Amino acid sequence: MAKMNKTDSPRLVDFSAQYKRLLESKMRESVNRLPAPEILKDSMLYSLEAGGKRIRPLLLFATLDAFGKDPEMGMWTAAAIEMIHTYSLIHDDLPSMDNDDLRRGKPTNHKIFGEAVAILAGDALLTYSFQMIAETPDQFVDAAGKVALIRHLAEAAGPQGMVGGQTADMLGEGKKLTLDELKYIHEHKTGKMLTYSVTAGAIMAGADEETIRKLEKFSRHLGLAFQIRDDILDLEGQEEMLGKRVGSDESNQKTTYPSLLTLEGAKRALDEEIALAKKYLVETGLSTNLLEEITDLVANRNN
Amino acid sequence: MAKMNKTDSPRLVDFSAQYKRLLESKMRESVNRLPAPEILKDSMLYSLEAGGKRIRPLLLFATLDAFGKDPEMGMWTAAAIEMIHTYSLIHDDLPSMDNDDLRRGKPTNHKIFGEAVAILAGDALLTYSFQMIAETPDQFVDAAGKVALIRHLAEAAGPQGMVGGQTADMLGEGKKLTLDELKYIHEHKTGKMLTYSVTAGAIMAGADEETIRKLEKFSRHLGLAFQIRDDILDLEGQEEMLGKRVGSDESNQKTTYPSLLTLEGAKRALDEEIALAKKYLVETGLSTNLLEEITDLVANRNN
User: Fold this and answer.
1) Is the dihedral of CA A11, A12, A13, A15 positive or negative?
2) CA distance to partner chain B, nearest, from residue A147 (Å)
3) Mind listing the domains of chain A with CATH numbers?
4) Distance from C-alpha of B287 to C-alpha of A87, rounded to nearest angstrom
5) How far, in Å, CA of B239 to CA of B263, rounded?
6) pLDDT value at position B9?
7) Does the pLDDT of residue A156 top 50, yes or no?
8) CB–CB of B159 and A116 under 8 A?
């Protein structure tokens, strides 16, 4: 099939709008139906509905599409992924963690509901995410598939994945990190869940091991690109706000790709990661035009 | 088979010692093998190894025994249950929740590791618990069984179970509760996980729906008995410490069974719950001598 580029294919825009809408109503309905204290549900929904790019669910839907599968079969797992992502933001924002008052321009969960409810809403979302996968109708994923999805989710989100990365991030605060340490943090704190979003789609589609390995490599490079772009945006944003060039280690104590590689070096690293991601994508031989569009989006995004 | 009573059957003592030992080494080994930051593993193990009665795993093992099954097949689920219980204690003890400095005579997790690591260790244990069940060898539980175990665990531990109960408990603090409100809190905060410990064994043993319903009723009454006994012990402990009779509502703002029913009324309620628990146990027609011994232990325990 002919490869499309962004200008002649607005497919991702429609695809993204359609499945974001379906996902958001699935999450809302799933929380609303719970027999649970209203304040807990309000707190869960407040953060679930705070917006965001929904990049992880989108990766899952686009991966199913690449295998020629109906993306809707991934709705339960997509909701689980977004619930895990959301819980991690709620807990990361707590006073004893990053102590953030605002996220995406809105007060953080604990500023509205208090710390106790925010912790519990995070716990509730994390727990509920596994139930979501277990509740996928059997015609979409059989029991063995669900067990695989759950095991991989726990690995990606738990101590050997996201929680481990967040721990390393906390420990590294205020310290000068090496490039390897910085990569460890990102590959765990954000990378594992991005990779899971892709491999979960492949598992559901019944992909062979070799294709799964290639998709894992694709998503690992995509995840690093995502993080490098984040660091570049942060730096350029600071410069814009301050109206002058910011030396990265002056700005705050945080080690970033630009602080280790210079801004130009970070931009080169970003290009390299994007090129590698696309290389592995092509190697799969799947209909990956949506995944390529997402990759371009990550490389060029402005927020 | 002849019914045994506590004096002529020390079976629970040996059974309990044997499976507690196996469980504790299973949990230690499962955490130690994780490729994760050492401080996170230390924090997880600190609370996992802080002792405790292991009443929930014991209920699971004894239920498998009642069906004539090898209790060891429940080891992964038992570890999951104890990890969930442990994470809930770590989060409940946090400054923004119950703000406890000591648990079982030892400093609480956040007093040793700091709040951030304590929150993350709780998140890690919660996440890892689902992986434990997913990793049960297939010869013990097939994929459909694992999905059922995971779905029920999420229901028992999440917003419609333990987390919902903890939320209601926080909201009720300092307020005078009705007996129905108090029951709601206990049935969710502690009851659902006790019930799960029994029904998980029944699911693994392939029990029919009717037997599962009876075991659910057994464990619901056992759970209430457990909580009433807790409240009675608290009150008697306070009286002993103060060397005088304590009017329950003077002591602190917390609504308890004795504060609602008087001490004598609470003791009668305890006897009634124990009698109902045993009635449903007998109705199952299973070899329930270990479960009966656990029930007597709950009724008579002194700590």
Assistant:
1) positive
2) 6
3) 11-214 (1.10.600.10)
4) 43
5) 12
6) 55
7) yes
8) no
